[in-house]
Specification:
- The structure holds 2 protein chains of 2 kinds.
- By secondary structure, chain A is mainly beta.
- Chain A is built from 1 helix and 24 strands.
- Chain A has one domain: Neuraminidase (6 Propeller), CATH 2.120.10.30.
- The longest helix of chain A has 12 residues, at 16-27.
- Chain A starts with 15 loop residues before the first helix and ends in a 7-residue tail after the last strand.
- By secondary structure, chain B is of the alpha+beta class.
- Chain B is 16% helix and 15% strand.
- Chain B has helices at residues 4-16, 87-94, 101-104, 126-139, 165-173; strands at residues 38-41, 47-51, 54-58, 71-75, 78-81, 160-161, 224-230, 253-256, 273-275, 289-290, 294-296.
- A 5-stranded antiparallel beta sheet of chain B has the order 1-2-5-11-6. Chain B has a 4-stranded mixed beta sheet with strand order 9-8-7-10. Chain B has a two-stranded antiparallel ribbon with strand order 3-4.
- In chain B, a hairpin with a 5-residue loop joins β1 and β2.
- The chains are: A mainly beta, B alpha+beta.
Chain lengths: 332, 298
């Protein structure tokens, strides 16, 4: 059923054999992918091989919903959010754990959109704007940094930060990159924010949900609803810049592409795609973490060749928010 | 509202004088059959005007093709907010503890770009505006109009909703038939509206300019206002005469009144715009779009 949809606008340029080739190629790629899915009856985190094989539930918690996983740079830990409680008591809280699902530790109540620093010693995150639970992506206030060793949380010096989502931390620790929606005088943009100062710069990339590659020389993002954009990123100077903007893959409306994530070596981008929500007034859009996304699956695109992509999950059970998990060369 | 005394003066003047302005619609002048507007206060303290039942000529023979043909429309009485929904009202309603999770889980944040308690809420999609209408109804103990699953509007419910396009134009004209709902045309627009020539690229607190003859502020300019109707360019060719409620298509929805970024022509009473409603747009970023609510008159 899902495959009958007009998945990619240029699917004719990406024959099935091409995607099969990529899938075979990914069999030999040692890194894994963690993602959220509700295929178990509620939301859990699943880890699969790069070719989609051995997709395994690592949380198995029927009473709470784990979402938005982000693996540490060395692949040993995963931070994530967990929706806990029902109805008015529902809250989105922040945790981290070992990448096999053991050793869960809470970091903060009412927090979201975490990311790691380059050596995996700190997790940055956003706090919820309101005490009341919301799926709304930009319902956040401030940036906070948690030290795993100290257990201490420090707030970003700029106390006016608000309405960010999809937080990234540059490997040199000097910059955060995130989407803003109606905050700090910006309309809707992808911003670079000084990690230790008040400087905020618009990268002038249309769209949202950015992801930095391992050396932050590249950025990928949802370039509108129906494309994964890529650009060269320069965070070395006083004014961050994104140039050479192009698309890694495009889908055809009403199929959306979101949640881009660079593989550890920058060769691939994992992303999720699926149909837009049907008309309703509930405001719950499939690209939001924890919102049911019927027909959504995880894909991988080869960033070096246009339209070379493959689908890793096929059940369409709200498979979203993929994040590459680094695996050492001698590990499996 | 900046000046309560000024508002009271305006209302008293409206109640006392029949404003008869020369010319007809085709000459670009205004004609008003002004009557004393009855103002009611809602449970949350917001003021609404009781718009009288009546008939008017909708559209413009001199305007764009989608404003033609000019046709007679008859409407029932209804209540309309005196001002665009402010950010203060939006936050007050959306943070009310009485709201159910089905409304709050979609978000309660004020997503306006031009921040200010008395400024109109903007950067708001059509479904978010409709959701606010339901929230406001719940907070005031009224029956919500919108079905959140289908988007359908129950016009018989006593809660808040967006105005139909006909209700909006009727209220905007306030008995006039010219291009603008006052005498003097575009040259006097700055007295009534925030628009491109005077807004300095931002919204402004509501009710700073003169109201129209029925006591409605900022019907022209500040933010363009969502209507309940879907937009079709040729709808006037087949629309019903009594209480028209828009075409069945829903690709675009009607925006009326122009905004802080609009030229004078976009602020004409009959000017129609079809806007992307934002049903599936997480990145809705139109900071010139807001709304005001209406309610059934009991």
């Amino acid at each position: 059923m899902l495959l009958a949809l007009p998945i990619f606008a240029n699917a004719s340029d990406a024959p099935d054999q091409g995607s099969a080739e990529l899938r075979t190629e990914l069999k030999g790629y040692r890194h894994k992918i963690v993602h959220e899915s509700n295929r178990s009856g509620n939301w859990d985190l699943w880890v699969m091989n790069a070719d989609g094989a051995n997709d395994t539930n690592i949380t198995n918690t029927p009473d709470v919903d784990e979402l938005y996983p982000k693996a540490s740079p060395d692949g040993t830990m995963i931070c994530f959010v967990c929706d806990e409680g029902k109805d008015d008591a529902k809250m989105r809280n922040l945790y981290y754990m070992n990448s096999d699902g053991t050793g869960r530790k809470k970091i903060c109540d009412n927090a979201r959109e975490p990311c790691w620093n380059s050596d995996g010693t700190k997790i940055a995150f956003l706090k919820g704007e309101s005490d009341k639970f919301s799926y709304q992506d930009f319902a956040s206030k401030g940036i906070f940094m948690y030290g795993l060793k100290s257990g201490e949380t420090k707030e970003h010096p700029n106390k006016k930060i608000q309405h960010l989502y999809t937080l990234n931390w540059s490997p040199d620790g000097k910059w955060f990159v995130a989407t803003v929606h109606a905050g700090m005088g910006f309309k809707h943009s992808i911003l670079a924010l000084e990690a230790a100062g008040d400087g905020i710069f618009d990268l002038h990339l249309g769209g949202c949900r950015p992801d930095l590659n391992s050396d932050a020389k590249l950025i990928a993002w949802g370039n509108g609803d129906c494309a994964i954009g890529m650009a060269d990123l320069d965070l070395s100077g006083p004014t961050p810049k994104a140039t050479n903007i192009r698309n890694a893959i495009e889908s055809k409306d009403p199929i959306e592409t979101y949640h881009a994530d660079w593989s550890p070596d920058g060769k691939y981008i994992a992303f999720s795609y699926g149909p837009k929500a049907k008309k309703n007034l509930k405001g719950l859009l499939p690209e939001f973490p924890g919102v049911e996304a019927v027909g959504w699956n995880i894909c991988v695109v080869d960033t070096s060749k246009k339209d070379r992509w493959t689908m890793l999950t096929t059940d369409g059970r709200s498979n979203k928010e993929p994040d590459w998990v680094f695996v050492k060369a001698n590990e499996k | 509202m900046k000046n309560a005394k000024y508002k009271m003066f305006i209302r008293a003047a409206l109640a006392c004088f029949l404003i008869v302005l020369g010319g007809c619609g085709e000459s670009g002048s205004a004609q008003s059959s002004a009557q004393a507007p009855e103002i009611i206060k809602t449970k949350l303290g917001t003021e609404m005007v009781r718009i009288p039942a009546g008939s008017f000529e909708m559209g413009s023979a001199r305007g764009s093709e989608d404003e033609k043909p000019v046709h007679t429309v008859t409407l029932d009485s209804f209540l309309m907010d005196c001002t665009e929904v402010t950010q203060e009202l939006f936050v007050t309603v959306m943070h009310n503890p009485a709201l159910p999770a089905v409304i709050t889980q979609a978000g309660t944040s004020n997503g306006s770009v031009h921040k200010g308690e008395k400024n109109p809420v903007e950067t708001i999609s059509w479904p978010a505006a409709a959701r606010f209408c339901n929230a406001r109804s719940i907070v005031e103990g009224l029956t919500p109009c919108y079905n959140l699953d289908t988007g359908a509007c129950n016009f018989d419910a006593d809660g808040y909703r967006l105005p139909t396009e006909a209700e909006w134009e009727y209220a905007c004209r306030a008995g006039t038939s010219g291009d603008y709902a006052y005498d003097g045309g575009a040259s006097k627009l700055s007295e009534y509206a925030w628009f491109k020539d005077n807004a300095n690229k931002t919204t402004h607190p509501v009710a700073q300019k003169k109201p129209n003859a029925w006591g409605l502020y900022d019907m022209l300019g500040n933010v363009a206002e969502w209507c309940n109707d879907a937009y079709e360019a040729d709808y006037y060719k087949s629309s019903p005469k009594a209480n028209p409620r828009g075409p069945s298509s829903d690709t675009k929805y009607v925006l009326r009144g122009g905004a802080w970024e609009s030229s004078a022509d976009a602020l004409r009473s009959a000017k129609r715009v079809g806007g992307e409603p934002g049903f599936t747009d997480t990145c809705f970023k139109a900071d010139a779009i807001g709304f005001r609510c209406v309610r059934r008159a009991k």
